Amino acid sequence: MNNDNLKILKEFTIHSLPNLDVVVRGALERFADEELPKLQVHKLGLQPLVVGSANAHAVGRILFKDTFARFSEEGDFESNLKNFADTHSIVIVSASGGKHAVEIAERATALRGDLPVWLLTNNKNALASKFVDAKRIIVFPKNREPYTYNTSTYLSMIFAHTKEDSKEIYSRIDTIRKDIPEDLGRYSAFILTVPSKFEEVRSMFRTKFDELFGGHVVGRIFTDEEIKHAKTVVPYDKELTIHFVIDGTEYEEEQENDAHLYVPLSKKASYGEMLAVGYFVIGKIQEAHPAYFKENIVAYTKDASEIFNQTINPIVE
Hints:
Blueprint: H1 4-11, H2 20-31, E1 48-51, H3 55-63, E2 70-72, H4 77-83, E3 89-93, H5 100-111, E4 117-121, E5 137-139, E6 145-146, H6 152-162, H7 166-176, E7 189-194, H8 201-213, E8 218-223, E9 239-246, E10 260-265, H9 271-287, H10 292-308, E11 315-316
Parallel strand pairs: 1-2, 1-3, 3-4, 4-5, 7-8, 7-9, 9-10
Antiparallel strand pairs: 6-11
């Protein structure tokens, strides 16, 4: 591990935005040598209401998966606060601590001022922090990345919870990348299957396809059990199926004319490895297709700044 990708992340400009696979490797390089904040989710409330938007919502579900937590997004958190009297705390998950997180923090305090509010974020200057006691803000490290990538941000939260070894995941990716075909650009649609125990990453992978490709490249994400239920009725010769499987798992060999790729995860894989390996593969898909994201992110962040009435830059420092 020579930190080449981390160096790229420190130096890239709007004219040299890195692909997602580079950002994944850069995050793993950083966390190999950095101590993460302690995250003991059971100490944030016996039955918290965990609130987040988009991928932050999925990360909240990952962090509190084995607890008595309830989960909300920006659209239903107020009704849940009113309806669930047995809620013990409110936990807001937001990489930026801005956008919807500000309104969520403000409304949560106004509606249930009797409850402690926690903020898990990667921004020490988060706008939402004005509504949260400083003792209940946990700031996780992040790398400099293109807007929306949110790779080091959420990986740092997950690693703080799962205690996975980023060096081991980095080595696994080094092995995996040798077997990824160079002709991914010939496919305009992809199915990704993940082990059922990692079901919460499905929405995160779908979001990445939305962000990187819009309608140009289709990504359909299922668990290995969900895929069995009429998801492949209509065949398409430009669709590649990528199966993420636990190393040693037996699977039925596909016919030679079927487009399938098997990507092995370690036997002790947890959500950090699943997310890192999945994002890495999606980054290789990005590399093989036109630069849809890079050509449009500046215009998008300009529009998003107006929508949220906050300054949103195409590069998150």
